[in-house]
Write a structure and sequence with these properties.
Shape: globular
Largest sheet: none
Number of helices: 8
Helix content: 40-55%
Order of helices and strands: HHHHHHHH
Number of strands: 0
Length: about 190
């Protein structure tokens, strides 16, 4: 018999879950399967005392439930509660005294979703997706046209029709240091 949440489901939890439903596939694709990284920056609305499951773990399990087709809060909490051990291990769920992974209680899931609310969850999910978004494909030519492969020499900066300055043989192609550069060599 699955464990149901004993508390009434607030509208904020329903809204947060709806936001997660909208973004679950994009988050899973952008994270490359690492949903914990995706939810690492989301601030935990709970008091630090008594926290048994980290927030990224609970949100990753909720996202996995949504990706399995559960969109109602009751279905998500039931799926999270009976998640297999390998899924709980991937989400880094806590272990009990026997070393068995323990799923978050349905009340915990509802309290977290209600405490987060839809807008902060959407903001953090959108920011994560924006950071992970790659720019579109850039087309680079495979081979350079013939005119690019020829040797290129800069044109003279002198006015047209004026003679180009001759180089002295002693300079051997190096340019003198610009004036005022502090390079003075007093003999």
């Amino acid at each position: 018999m699955p464990v149901q949440s004993g508390m009434p489901v607030p509208a904020a939890a329903e809204d947060a879950l709806a936001e997660l439903v909208c973004r679950a596939a994009a988050l899973a694709a952008a994270s490359g399967g690492n949903l914990l990284e995706c939810f690492a920056a989301v601030p935990d609305p709970r008091d630090a005392r008594g926290v048994r499951h980290c927030l990224p773990c609970v949100l990753a399990l909720c996202t996995a439930a949504v990706l399995c087709g559960n969109t109602a809060i009751e279905d998500v909490t039931a799926w999270v509660h009976r998640a297999p051990q390998d899924v709980l291990a991937a989400a880094r769920a806590r272990r009990n005294a026997l070393g068995i992974r323990v799923a978050p209680h349905p009340d915990t899931v509802v309290r977290i979703l209600a405490g987060l609310g839809a807008q902060p969850l959407a903001d953090h999910a959108g920011a994560y997706l924006a950071r992970r978004a790659l720019p579109g494909p850039v087309a680079y030519p495979v081979a350079a046209p013939g005119w690019l492969s020829r040797s290129w020499t800069p044109r003279s900066t002198s006015a047209p029709g004026s003679p180009t300055p001759a180089r002295s043989p002693s300079s051997s192609g190096t340019s003198p240091a610009p004036s005022g550069s502090g390079n003075t060599s007093a003999g």
